[in-house]
Each structure stands twice: as structure tokens, then as C-alpha cells.
Amino acid sequence: MNNFESKQKFIESFKQEVSRTYGREFEDTYAIERYIALGNMVREHIGYNWKESKNAVNKHGTKQLYYFSMEFLMGRLFTSNLMNLGLYDVVKEGLDELGMNINDMEEMESDAGLGNGGLGRLAACFLDSLASLNYAGHGNCIRYRYGLFKQKIVDNKQVELPDCWLKNGNVWEIWKPQHATSVKFGGFVDGRMDQFGHFHCKHYPDFVVKAVPYDEPIVGYQTKTTNTLRLWDAQVDEEFAQAGNLQKYLNDVQALTTNVYPDDSTPEGKELRLKQEYFFVCAGVDQILKSHLRVYPSLDNLGKKVAIQLNDTHPVLVVPELMRRLCDDYNYGWDEAWAIVRETVAYTNHTVMAEALEKWDQGVVAKLLPRVFMIIQEIERRFKAEVEAKGLGYLFHAVSILKDNQVHMAHLAIVGSHSVNGVAALHSQILIDDVMKDFNTVYPGMFNNKTNGITHRRWLLYSNPQLTSLLEETIGDSFKTNPQDLEKLMAHVDDPILQKRFMDVKLERKQILAEYVKKELGIEIDVNSIFDCQAKRLHAYKRQLLNILGVMHTYLEMKQNPYYRIYPRTVFFSAKAAPSYALAKEIIKLINMVANKVNNDPETNKYLKVVFIPNYSVSIAEILLNAADVSEQISTAGKEASGTGNMKYMMNGAITLGTLDGANVEIVGQVGYENAEIFGLHVEDINELKRRNSYNVWNYYNENGAVRRVVESLRNRTWSNDTEEFRLIYNDLMMKNDEFYVLADFDAYNHAQRRVSERYRDRSGWARTMLINIAKSGYFSSDRTIEEYATQIWNLDKVNFE
Length: 802
Fold this sequence. Notes:
- The protein is an alpha/beta fold.
- The protein is 48% helix and 14% strand.
- Strand 18, helix 22 (544-560) and strand 19 (569-574) form a beta-alpha-beta unit.
- Helix 13 (362-368) packs across helix 14 and helix 22 (544-560) packs across helix 29.
- The chain is globular, with a radius of gyration of 27 Å.
């Protein structure tokens, strides 16, 4: 029965569902009750294709991907599910007739608190593309009850509150207690070797928890293919809980799924993070093996029917855990098991920064995961023999998994995978030439590039219907299923009528953002000003500090010279800082205190305003990115692996103001330097400065009056009456020699900003540049990225429903 076959059928079914579920007349129910009932109806409708997808995969023996990621920033699913299913219009019209607004229903859904930044949003885009391209690809993660945190700004400072995203439940998930599995930690292992040379091991743990899955359907666009995001919740193991301190046990179980990325500044926090990583890895591997054996007689063909992708180093324990299961539970010999693991597993590296490549204290790993650590030791022993057999023993220390009393997780990932990829051309080359160059010698040909992408469905079709409509009228609708067809827009970029219509669309999106800012923050902004946006995780290398120093410089120039005025500009920031990251939190405080000063100065506030939007999320990004004129992608060259925000801005027309870093390089390659604003040191420049040890921040301070003025304003009561308010920032710049070359790029950045203002005055030229960015953005669709993974790494075939 299709409850959505017509408007009247939907209205009738919806009213019945609400009344039946809540035992009252439809007119007497609450809005949240109606939302939940509608969500349940849509999920049940999805269930038909979900079932058919599973049946088709099993019938044809289709190879499946399992994407292990610590984060999946899915955003709200209400609109995207209705759109992908082709139900949006029926539901909207039906709700209209009932006197309800579909936008109000959309607002009742919380952003799922399953991540922090680009890593999680990339994973979500990949799931959308996998289903839309008819590949069987599933996600594996933790069901965090309180997400990262909800950010509030109080007295200019970030305050962290619980992100209660599950307060109204999650209408998309289905509880699957029948698939629960035990995860064991600590204790000791006992083993023996049998007469056939097989090692038999028994684990006597001191902490056991049940991993219970909740499944969310992932709906493809205009296709039957429906995949699964499996989220693991930690629950008590009733047998184990009977022994010992019950309250401590309950607290320890709950902590496993309370937050994503718990504070790891303490030994206890580090142990909790490691336990989280093993928790979802152990449960996910167990599910894969059991699912496989329900269809196939053995695990011999696991690598032919299953691909596992490790999204960064967090899930790397998949390698030893899969070895443990194959050897200990299924009696495979080491060599057989190792061949299966390497055929199955691939690894995506997301960083070149040494501190972000996870390393765990060997003692902690041995204590929490005694059998897994034994297997890592054996992997290391055999890897050493392999390296020496290749005549490369002199490289072993550099590539070792176990050294300096640490387990190097990126090294373990490389050794246990058949493919290692970077996420932008520059990033992948840095891996080969620098960060992982010794591994490239040991395993030539293993490293490859898969430039990241974004789902154009969420970031264009659904979040910017005004632009989508204009594009349909101009180039047809083929870009909806083939985003590379956005290239057809190139034939129209010089059309003055289209340029005018596009600028009207951009203005409408800017008005929507301005209304949000007025409502939520009480700040009036000029929609005819340049909307200059930087929204991303707060980290020193992303250089939000350079941005706000530029704002400070501009303000101080206007105050010093009453004849100097800029083209009106509104600078938007939105970012969360990790709770224990003191410098990042101080930068947020600086941004907000500068905003207070700038926004309330009647001499200059018609020319310059600063807006910090708290609690950055997918939903905020959906109204911010498509209103932007300028996309700030200003990380230190060589530090950003790829970035995906740059692609979202580009797809909505914003010009990239950035360094030659990450995917900015490829964006410029697509649009040309004349349609972006590139500035600053290149990777080669920075490498030369490091090689010669010649960077001295005091030279910039002493020789550049603008640099000296803006640095001194941090401590001369310009922004705060407390001269020590921004001591961490000052020290990071001046006493730690400006690790991320902020002041080295200061002049170039300000010059680039002046060029942006000049270009913006040419309305026709600016519109043309924006249209070219849109036309060239199809390359950065995650559909292209997934096709490359599917054909070059995973060897997937499309799901066959016949």
C-alpha cells in the first residue's frame, strides 16, 4: 500500500497514522507528534526499497562496501529523503491543505550529533553518492547520545553545552537488538598451540559491554538502492554487570557513547577514546563476518565480496581485529588471514600533520586490548622481515608500527591495506614525497589520489532551490543526475540577462541569511555588502586568526584615516573549538570582541561588520554557504589535506579567496587564476624557509608598521581593557615564531582582499566569475569521487534488481 500515491491518499493516511499512534483526534495532536508520525510513515515507505536492496545484493552476490568512520555528519534527513524518494511535492501539498507548513516540520528535526567537521560531512556525502549511484555501500559508526557539544557564546567566550539531538528521538533509526554483540576490554589472555600449528587464545576480560545497533536507511536519488548507516550504542552486558561495582560499570558503559571525541588531555580521556575506537570497530567487524556467512559458506572469499574503507586513522584497529577473528575464531592460518585482510581493507589518509596521525601508548593498548596488541606485535615482526627481504632494512625504523613506546596507527593502516589514498592532488603528492615517502619505497604503487567531493543534491538542489531553478531554465535538468553537466553553463556566462538573474538569486539567498542573523543574533547587516565567509572547525592551521587580523587591520586603517573607506563588507565566521584547545577558544573570543567593537562604531559600521554564528552545523551551512560572495580558504599551504567547504561555496558561486593548499589547487585548475583570488606562500616557499631555518616573525614585526600595529592591538586595550586577554594568541605569534606563517602572509592577504573589493564593483564581471565557478563545480561532486573509489579501489558492481 502506497500512502503517498496522491495528495488525498497521503492526507487520509497521515491523519489516520497520527490518530492511531497517539490515541486522539488529529486536530488535538501536537506538532511534534505529527512530525514523528510523518517520519515513521516515510521510513516505512523507505522500507520496501530497503528490503529489495538487501535481497538484490544477496541474490546476485554483489560486493558491498563498509565505510568505517568515527563521524557521519548527516544533517537533517527529512527534506533529502522526501526529495530523493520523489515524495516532497505530495507531502508539501498535503500539509498545505491541512494548514501545516512543511518548513515547520523540517525545523523539528535536529542535526544528528554524529561528528565535528569535514571528515564526518565527507562520509555523509559519500553515503549519499553510493546509494544514488546504485552501489551497495554502508556506514559504520557510534550512536553518540550528545554529539560533540552545543556551542553558545557567553561574554564573548565559547561555552559547551550538551547537544541533545535525540531529545525527540530519531525517526529514521530502527533498533536491532537481535544483532547485539559483546565487546571485551582489559584482563588477560591465555593461549596454546595445537598439533597443527594453530594458536588458540582465550580472553579473560575485566570489562564487557554490549554493542547494540541502530540502523538508518540511506536513500538514493531516484533509485531503489537503499543502503544502511549502522550506529552502535553501548548497553550493559547483564552477565558481566552482576560482578563488581555496578555504578562504576554503568558509568563506564555510558561513557563509551556519550560524546564524539571526548577530551583526551588526560590519561583517562585517552583511554576512553581508544575504547570508543575499538568498540565500533569490533562490533562492525562482527556484523560483517556474520552477514557474510549468512550468504556464503566460508570467509575465503571475504575480500571478493566485501570492501572496508578506513576513513582516517580512528578505525585502523579493523586490521588487527579482523586478523584476530579470522585466526582465533575461524581457524585461519596467519598467511591466509593476512591475505584476506589486505585484500579487504583500504585506508584514506586525511592529514599531513604529525600530531593528527594517531599514536597510542603501547602500554595502554596492551592493557585495554591484550589480544589485539599481541597481533599488532606479530604484524610488526612479519613486516620487519618483509622489509628486510626487500633489501630495505635501513628504512624499517622510519616505517615501524611500534616505536618510541607508541603504536603508530597510520603505519598500521598502510601495512594492513592494499590501497592508501590522499584526498587532493597536492595532499597525495605530499604523502608520496614527504610524509609517507619511505612507505612509498616499500610499497611502490600503493599510494593514489581520490580528490574529495560533495553531494550536489544536498548542497545545490535542496539547499539552494532558487539557483537550481535558474540552472534548470538555462541548461536543462540533466545536471541533477549528472553534475558534470553543470559545464553546459559555460556557454551562457557572458549573457547579461543571466548575469542579472543570477545576482538576483544571490541577493535572495543573502536576504535569507540576513533575516536569520537578525532573528538569532540581533545584528542588522547590509545585503548589498560583500558577504565574506569562513566557516569550518577552528584550528590554528586553518588560520581564522589571519582573517580576523585582517579585519582588525582594516578597522584600524579606517579609524586612523577618515578618508579611507572600503566597499561595504560583512565578514562571517562560524566555528567550534575543541573544549581543551585553549588557543582556538581564545581566537573565538577575539573574533567576538572585535565584532563588538566594529559593529558598534557608528563611524565605520556602515562599511564593516563582523558576525560570528554560533553552533556551526550542517543546517547553518545550508543557509550560509549559498549566500556567500567570498569563500575564505586560507590555511597554511601544505596543511589542509583537501577541504570540502571550498567545493560547497564554489558550487553556489562564491569566489575562492585562498592559498594554494588542498583542493584549492584543483579549484584554480578548473576555473583559472582569473576566477579565484590566490595569495600567500606556496608549499615550496615554506619548505625552503624550514630547510634554511630562516623564518623570523620579529623581522615582519619590526619592518612592517601594519603588522606591528595589529599585533600590538592585542595588548594595548584596543579590543579589551585587559592587556592579558589575548596573551595566548600573542605568544603563539611572537614567542613561538608564528608556526603557521600568519604574519608572513599578512600583507598578501590584505592585498588579495583589496583586489576582491575592486572586482566586486564590476557587477557584470563578478557575476561572470561566479557563474564560471558554478559551471566548473561539477567535477567536485562526490559522485565522481565515489566512481573513482568504486572502480579503482573497491571493485564494486552496481546493484542489480532484475
